[in-house]
Amino acid sequence: MSVVVHADQVSKIFRLGDVGSSTLTEDIRAAYYKILGKENPYLKMAVENDRTSGVSSDFIWALKDINFEVNQGEIVGLVGRNGAGKSTLLKILSRTTTPTQGEIKIKGKVASLLEVGTGFHPDLTGRENIFLNGTILGMRRSEIRDKFNDIVEFAGVQRYIDTPVKRYSSGMYVRLAFAVAAHLDPDILIIDEVLAVGDAEFQAKCLGKMKDVSDQGRTVLFVSHNMGAVADLCSRAILLKQGMIIQDGPTDSVIRTYVQQNMQVKLSDSSSLSDNTVRRGTGQVRYEQIRMLNSSGEEVNEFFQGDKVVIEMTLKVLEPINELLASISLRSGRTRDMVTSTKRNKIDCTNFKSGDIVNVRYEFPRLSLRPGVYETYYWLGDKSAETAFDVVDNLLPPIVVKLPIETNDLFVSGYFDEPFTFEQISI
Amino acid sequence: MRQYRMTSNSNKQWDMIIRPSGGLFDLKLRELWEYRDLLYLLVRRDIITVYKQTLLGAFWFILPPILNTAIYFVLFGVIAKVSTDGTNPILFYLTGLIAWGYFADCINRTSTTFRSNASIFGKVYFPRLIVPLSSVVSALIKFGVQLILLVAVLLFFLIRGENVHPQYAYLWLLPLLLLMMMFSGLAFGIIISSLTTKYRDLTNMVPFAVQLLMYATPVIYPASIIPAKYLWILHINPLTPLIESIRFIFIGSDQINWLMLGYSLVFTLVTLFIGLLMFNRTEKDFMDTV
């Protein structure tokens, strides 16, 4: 197998904070130091910051000594928490920024999809935008002309092709934008998970196309938070943490490490939910803490099929309310399908005063989920179903389900093991 | 941990190598040529979006030179009585202002290249130079509309038998002069846009600097009224011969100074080269600072 991407000691320094007029002063000082033959003081700061963590500096290593190779036809998932360096690596690979040190060698034509519809102009028609967007993505006009009918058909916008895209519904717009990207035919496709936004149908189409691309022997680099999609699509994953590669190997084991590491962070920082201010919901009631426990009361997120699972929640009342319901949902797979959801459970809130702390507990006696990675979605709201007080959507570690013994039947699919008996009643 | 294998060797053919910074003098003109379709489509986009505003769009193009001509006619011609070397003052101002307008338009459109395209540049790689190039080409639309106005006014005065003498024998020079204005505008614009990604406050200086440059160029006055001891300013200004030559071709005032024009050409090429170097350096990692 031939190597198509070869990254060698790739590093990148970022400066934090505001890049304003002060940089002129800094540049003059840097030039002054250079004239005196001294080392640039700003570069030195970054190096120091790396060696002694905790020292605050305006400069950090967003990536440090990244080495990897990708073979032709591989689908590699890049995973890691926010700020681990995934996006920076993606940007370097797609050439929107350069590394500070090191180099990446690439064989073949690269297409990077960090978003769809780049350069779409609302006043231009669908036809005009296909050509504009296609050439921005690196296609020639003749190439687009050849694929034009396919693109229009894939997007399903035949009737509106000569209408300005500002009159398109958002669904049509995204479909058209994706259709152009889907017909790029690169040797290497670099794709960001932000692409997989939109409705479920679109996500499925998007991820399905990735699978097609790799089936044709092309190489895919996929950056994602969505462990389900990574597990589903990628045979190999690379885990980044604080700008360095922590693990590079089969997807299963990388995901396990990722989940464990996330778990450690949450355990050591039990107030993480109350600190997390970027949350949906109106905020009359907030989750303070959500703990997932096994039968012996240990905080874990890996379970065997058939295990007991306990979820304990601490809620904080910020404003008195008339009605309070709670539910837990699980999502999985590359399309993040809703797998299951509890009923909306009523919590008595007649005597709530602001500042009250409420504890609730869910108990699932026998886990019937099939092995896999299930994202969690915790919801607090009222009966109207339109008001959510608080939503914790995939902010906490997913539930990982394993089989007690490795008797994984490859032909079993779906999410649940429904109990059944089987017998042959005649010849 | 996966074993890092050194399977690559130096003689292997790679299609692309991403490095901290390429050669300083690598202008990547071949790559620019590969993206010529994008240049065409960006210009087409500008034309279409302008024409979609139809009649009123063209009207806004010709209004500023008419108003400015009227203002300078009253202020300089009637009140201050500044000479226009005996040529019709309205044609004198109009020609100078339209020619200058194209140059200024080229600077203004290209000087914000990085900042106004940050959202596209952050997502897809293509040779960034395509964008300012398309801006100066599509600025020709506005110039073309204004040129029609100029020709109409010129015809009007010719029919009335005014003292105007278009130099038909030098018409061939006009495209070259236009190209020189285009590329000097582009050069200044991309230098400014490269600097403003880091030193953002420079943006505030641009309109003022362009205005100042106009007054240092014989746009609304002939070089003949400038006292000899200040004439060097006009002589080192590479735009002086461009404006003077254009006015000479259209209305027969001023003259063509071939030596000065040669200097202007060299100046344009040098600034363009410097601009390309700065622009290429900036495009590599401006996303980190913008």
Low-pLDDT residue intervals, each spanning 5 or more residues of chain A: 47-56, 267-271
Number of helices in the DSSP assignment of chain A: 10
Oligomer type: heterodimer
Encode the helix/strand succession of chain B as letters. Answer: EHHHHHHHHHHHH
Tally of contiguous helical segments of chain B:
12
Average pLDDT of chain A, rounded to a whole number, is: 80
**N-to-C SSE string of chain A, H for helix and E for strand:** EHHEEHEEHHHEHEHEEHHEEEEEEEEEE
Largest sheet of chain B: none
The share of residues in helices of chain B is 55-70%
Shape of chain B: globular
Question: How many beta strands in the DSSP annotation of chain A?
Answer: 19
Structural class of chain A: alpha/beta
Overview of the structural elements:
The complex is a heterodimer of chains A (427) and B (290). Chain A contains ten helices and 19 strands. With 427 residues, chain A is an alpha/beta fold. In chain A, strands 11, 13, 14, 15, 17, 18 and 19 form a seven-stranded mixed β-sheet that branches. A six-stranded mixed β-sheet of chain A has the order 5-6-7-3-8-9, with helices on both faces. In chain A, strand 13 and strand 14 form a beta hairpin. In chain A, helix 4 crosses helix 5 and helix 5 packs across helix 6. The radius of gyration of chain A is 25 Å and the shape is globular. Chain A starts with a strand and ends in a 25-residue tail after the last strand. Chain B has 290 residues and is an all-alpha fold. Chain B is 66% helix and 1% strand. In chain B, helix 2 packs across helix 7. Chain B is globular, with a radius of gyration of 22 Å. Chain B starts with 15 loop residues before the first strand and ends in a 5-residue tail after the last helix. The interface between A and B is large, with 53 and 43 residues.
